[in-house]
């Protein structure tokens, strides 16, 4: 309750600060116009058209009445009621976004987030049956998507950009509604350049998002392949190698993906030694065959030869253990081929990690998008009036959102649920190691039952 009260207090303080800022700006603008009668002479008259002007005001008017009179003069010139009220209205998107962001910051954190993202970039959760059912449920999925904006971190990531664009559109309104009637030149852009360039901008954004999505999908496919290879290696060793060799080899299999995960993420995000301890499986208290790597083996990986990556070190250990199993040539070749596939997948991950979408392309797309949105109000203000602020903010949210999503998934290893994949590999390996005897017995009984069933079948 104390946290909720603190949150409401911060919300109220920020809201009051924004409203007070808008009122101060309005008062300053009115004082500016009242104190600069020479601006009116630029328009050809000493006063605003249809107004009484400061020189005609009775001397008995109070300062507040003078401000009201100035506001009435502006209203008559612009042709709409309350131009300063409209300018205050133009700042509502910033206030609205601020309230949503504060609400999002205060909600409990139930998901895993990328390190150093200030809880703004969440790691994808593996979908289960319930997730898929909710994702395709009509019309609930639509309402959930719309209501999810209130809890989404996307607005929080875009808040700074949207504020700058909101200020730019409010500046356009201020210039057009307040300064132009005082004799300043009218600045207006045609909509044709924006119409023609929107096609190119759309292609740039679509290509950017598509390439980032392809990198994300490729990375997920690679890790899915490593999951299958780890299962295959564990089962091969359980059937072909001696029991002691199988247990020793299978304990090292989850270490590869665990080390690779740590190598593809910020070193501060994971403690390699602790991750290797947890790679034993779901039950860390198990002993014997169900136990993971010993502390001595973990330190071998941590203190590996200088310049050698941890996952490369593990593949070398796995190859050595395969060689020491004294398997027939065909069986050893199959297991060696799986190690080769792991190394290929490792290299593919390193390639994705080290090679971003061409930096020049990304920078050009971002610059193009921001400038396009920044100058858009100069073309739309004449037809939309104060509505240009809301139109620009809506367009900015969706277009910047597309660009931001592409940026977040361009490096897919931060947002993919790699820890879940590593846990699945470790847990399945622990089950096979600790349940080897029951699994073998079940296979033997099944074979006997199959033979009996075959004997009962007519010839």
Structure description:
The protein is 73% helix and 0% strand. The protein has helices at 2-35, 38-42, 63-78, 83-90, 92-106, 129-135, 140-147, 154-179, 192-240, 243-264, 272-278, 295-302, 310-324, 329-354, 359-384, 387-410, 418-434, 436-456. It starts with a helix and ends with a helix. Mean pLDDT is 80; it is low at 1-11 and 24-81.
Key structural traits:
single chain; 459 residues; 18 helices; 0% strand; disordered N terminus
| Rg, Å, rounded | 33 Å
Cα distance spanning the termini: 78 Å
Overall, the morphology is elongated
Number of strands: 0
Q: Average pLDDT value?
A: 80
- Strand fraction band? under 5%
The secondary-structure class comes to mainly alpha
Largest sheet: none
Order of helices and strands: HHHHHHHHHHHHHHHHHH
Helical residues, percent: over 70%
Number of helical elements? 18
Q: Spans of 5+ residues with little confidence (pLDDT < 50)? A: 1-11, 24-81
């Amino acid at each position: 309750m104390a946290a909720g009260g603190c949150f409401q207090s911060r919300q109220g303080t920020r809201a009051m600060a924004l409203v007070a800022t808008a009122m101060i700006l309005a008062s300053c603008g009115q004082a500016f116009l009242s104190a600069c009668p020479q601006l009116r002479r630029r328009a050809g008259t000493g006063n605003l058209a249809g107004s009484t002007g400061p020189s005609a005001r009775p001397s008995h008017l109070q300062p507040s009445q003078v401000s009201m009179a100035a506001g009435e003069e502006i209203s008559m010139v612009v042709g709409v009621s309350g131009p300063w009220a409209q300018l205050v209205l133009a700042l509502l998107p910033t206030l609205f976004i601020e309230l949503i962001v504060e609400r999002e910051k205060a909600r409990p954190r139930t998901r895993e987030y990328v390190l150093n993202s200030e809880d703004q970039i969440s790691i994808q959760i593996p979908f289960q049956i319930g997730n898929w059912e909710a994702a395709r449920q009509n019309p609930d999925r639509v309402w959930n998507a719309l209501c999810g904006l209130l809890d989404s971190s996307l607005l929080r990531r875009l808040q700074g950009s949207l504020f700058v664009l909101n200020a730019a559109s409010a500046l356009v309104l201020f210039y057009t509604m307040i300064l132009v009637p005082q004799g300043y030149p009218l600045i207006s852009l045609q909509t044709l350049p924006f119409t023609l360039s929107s096609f190119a901008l759309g292609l740039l954004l679509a290509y950017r998002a598509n390439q980032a999505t392809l990198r994300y999908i490729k990375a997920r496919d690679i890790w899915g392949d490593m999951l299958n290879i780890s299962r295959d290696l564990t089962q091969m060793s359980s059937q072909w190698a001696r029991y002691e060799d199988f247990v020793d080899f299978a304990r090292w299999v989850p270490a590869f993906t665990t080390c690779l995960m740590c190598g593809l993420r910020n070193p501060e995000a994971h403690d390699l030694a602790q991750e290797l301890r947890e790679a034993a499986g779901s039950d860390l208290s198990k002993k014997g065959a169900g136990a993971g790597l010993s502390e001595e083996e973990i330190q071998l990986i941590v203190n590996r030869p200088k310049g050698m990556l941890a996952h490369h070190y593990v593949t070398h250990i796995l190859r050595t253990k395969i060689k020491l199993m004294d398997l027939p040539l065909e069986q050893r070749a199959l297991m060696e081929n799986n190690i080769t596939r792991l190394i290929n997948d490792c290299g593919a991950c390193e390639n994705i990690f080290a090679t971003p979408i061409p930096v020049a392309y990304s920078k050009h797309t971002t610059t193009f998008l921001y400038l396009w949105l920044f100058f858009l109000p100069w073309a739309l203000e004449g037809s939309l009036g104060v509505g240009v602020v809301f139109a620009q903010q809506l367009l900015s949210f969706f277009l910047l959102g597309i660009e931001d999503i592409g940026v977040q998934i361009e490096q897919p290893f931060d947002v993919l649920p790699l820890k879940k994949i590593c846990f699945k590999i470790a847990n399945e390996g622990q089950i096979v190691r600790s349940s080897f005897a029951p699994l073998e017995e079940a296979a033997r009984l099944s074979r006997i039952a199959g033979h009996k069933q075959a004997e009962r079948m007519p010839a």
